[in-house]
Amino acid sequence: MATTETVHHHLRRHHDHHNTINTHLKQKTSSKSTRLAESLSNLLHLHIQGPAQESLSNARFEEKHETPTTSPKEDISDKWRDMHGSSDWNNLLDPLHPLLRREIIKYGEFSQATYDAFDFDSFSNYCGSCRYNHQDLFEKLGLNKHGYIVSEYIYAMSSVKVPRWLEKSRLLEKALGKDSNWMGYVAVSDDEESKRIGRRDIVVAWRGTIAPSEWYEDLKRKLDPIGPHVEAKVEHGFLNIYMSKSETTRYNKSSASEQVMKEVKRLVQFYKGKGEEVSLTITGHSLGGALALLNAYEAASALPGLSIGVISFGAPRVGNVAFHDELHQKGVKILRVVVKQDIVPRMPGIIFNEGLQRFDDIIGSLEWVYHHVGAELKVDVRSSPYLKHGFNLLGFHSVETYLHLVDGFHSSSSAFRSEARRDLALVNKACDMLVDELRIPQSWYQPANKGLERNVHGRWVKPKRNPEDIPSPIGEGHTLVPEMQNKFERLRALYSFKLD
């Protein structure tokens, strides 16, 4: 009996000692993780802090379920130039003008659409394409409320030789293409929206980085000349994606630059020919924001006198000070929306950036120093009671996080707007940023059953796309079904688009 008690006593001591070691190891690991996050945040001045202490009552959150997600539209026809940056948004950003807030969110949703509709399923025969044809894109994504019609898709490629382990599809032979990817679209305001906003607005929305080859390009930090003046230089990888083309590809026999400029010129000529006021608004997130600047530079050079604005989200630096100066001289108006904790807008040029201007008298103007362009609207993750405040690089950079913070921003000195209407659940579409009290699953946005459907025999299969959603340009082995042909004809008559 005594022997048994001794053994039990020994086991208890061993168990307690084991728990003590585990607790110590967990604390040590947690301490290391915390120190690493703090060190990185201090290096980049991200201002990270722990989760919000304020708890959210379910009743308070559920109240929002019974309210609309948007405010009623207002006529801005007599204010559109201010909203489009004619005065560089002076006195409109802090505090943020409510009409401008709604316009920023509208263009941000156009940017988000390039992610929501992108087929990045590596098992898909159409990996790298848009899931929907351009006539149905906004309807499928619930963006018809904005009153714009998509007129053209843009494809881009990277000419870099991508390592095998970076290739995007497991079925390269059957995929859309090894090099070309759907990169965005051109849209134009319909008659009703044009009347509300005071002009015919052409929108170009550029997608951010998704495909591995694009990441590979983003990693390069070489500056290349752009335009006739060799002083103006931009990041090599961004320019490569914008300008690359190849006769061996299906969708990039012409470059993204050539595709977008052909359609923009056509629309400008058509609507100016009807005597209408026309603007060009270019938007994009991350890499898309960089491509938006290159697009704006080219459009301003090709279409002098056109009102051109850029509204970007989480965009990196693109070029040097000479590029900055040329955009300013060409009259391009640029508004950069930046989350304070997001590191992407700090790159490239974390050290060698516009901050060195103070030393111009000593070192002169350095052509290899990166420089941000335009006005800045800075929002802070810590301002929202609905967001986790821990270290979350993906969450900080998400478009939906940006739009949530813009919707709640009134001024840099005031609290998050209690009357913010945007659906909170959208924040967690592709990340884990909402506080646990809201009970919204992380990264919930995906096709039902991950794209599988039951066939007539009850087997789960990858379904075929509808013929109208197959990404084949008309005239290249694809014939429209009669219903889609009729739809095209109705749109042709209604909007006088050249749908070829």
From TrEMBL:
Q: Where is the composition biased (Basic and acidic residues)?
A: 60-78
The answer, when asked if Flavoprotein is one of the entry's keywords, is no
Q: Does the keyword Nucleus apply?
A: no
Q: Which UniProt keywords apply?
A: Chloroplast, Hydrolase, Lipid degradation, Lipid metabolism, Plastid, Transit peptide
Compositionally skewed regions (Polar residues) per UniProt: 20-34
Under CDD domains, the record lists: Lipase_3
Q: Which Gene3D superfamilies match?
A: alpha/beta hydrolase (3.40.50.1820)
GO MF terms on file?
A: galactolipase activity; phospholipase A1 activity
For biological process, the GO terms are: lipid catabolic process
The subcellular localization recorded is: Plastid, Chloroplast
Do you know which InterPro entries this protein is assigned to? Answer: AB_hydrolase_fold, Fungal_lipase-type
Pfam family of the protein (one): Lipase_3
List GO terms (cellular component aspect).
chloroplast
UniProt-recorded name of the protein: Fungal lipase-type domain-containing protein
